[in-house]
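Running co-folding for MU-OXO-diiron.
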Amino acid sequence: MIKEKIEKSLNEQIMKEEYSSRIYMAMASWCEANGYEGAANYLYNHSDEERMHMMKLIHFLNDRGGKVKLMPMDAPAVEYKSLKDIFEQILKHEIYISESINEIYGLCMEEKDYTTGNFMQWYINEQIEEESTMNGVLDKINLAGDQKGGLFHIDKELGGMSAKRPAEELAE
Ligand code: FEO
């Protein structure tokens, strides 16, 4: 049986992953409406990926005899200043998610819950990858500056960047 403290932290993480999925969906929708088709595609996929992060936690918590509790959450923003603004916000959000995951891992070690700690390792690795990807995208956006041509190419490139399929992700 999973300890109450760990159960609580996993439920909070479920909420954070669900919220990540919602904000990326809102950002994707803004991109779609503002002519950034590639970025929209990328972010819709990313939103699905975040939902899978949530599902993975839900399945784990149920398997360990815990109780899944979905929480209310705020509505994401509707307006964004630019593509740069969006990816800056994503990077900031992913750093926050990494911190949250590290805290859960620390709690698992404190509570000697090595099974959950081992499970959280997957998220730790995933966060390294996500932060690195977002940093790379932001570097390119910063290089392009306000040049329409540069942003056009970045948008095209984002459209070709494949997000992992949910099935692959759950299998990892
Ligand atoms: Fe599920 Fe992007 O963190």
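Result summary
The radius of gyration is 17 Å.
The chain has a mean pLDDT of 94.
Job closed.
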